[in-house]
Amino acid sequence: SGIEALTAFKNHELGYYDVIITDIRMPKMNGFELYRQIKEINPDTKIAFITAFEINKDEFNKVLPSIEVKDFIIKPIDMDDLIFKIKSMISM
What is the pTM of this model? Predict the structure, then answer.
């Protein structure tokens, strides 16, 4: 759940996680709220969203301008694509 992810994030020192990959739909706290709370703690944290839906980044930014999404990972996930995206996020 988003709450468990936030708890894990808070229980480690800043910089412990290189990248956070979160689903948008989760019980108790959705991925957008998780993003918001993590960014309040550490604005430099790199976060990608997983979704089963095709999302246009430009349209998303118009609807939720306060959430700066660098990448969406679309389900089903190809492992080679996932590795590429994670590596590119880390090198940013």
Answer: 0.79
CA angle in degrees (0–180, nearest 5) for 87-57-20: 40
Count, residues in the chain = 92
Which two structure tokens, joined as six digits, stand for 10?
A: 């808070």
Tokens of 7: 């708890």
Tell me, what's the pLDDT at 52? 80
Contacts by 67-76, CB closer than 8 A, 24 or more apart: 67/32, 67/35, 67/36, 70/46, 72/48, 73/21, 73/48, 73/49, 74/50, 75/50, 75/51
Residues contacting 87, CB < 8 A, separation 6+: none
Divide the 92 residues of the chain into consecutive groups of 10 and give the mean pLDDT of each group.
94 92 89 91 90 69 66 84 88 78
For residues 29 and 1, what is the distance between their CA atoms, to the nearest angstrom? Answer: 7
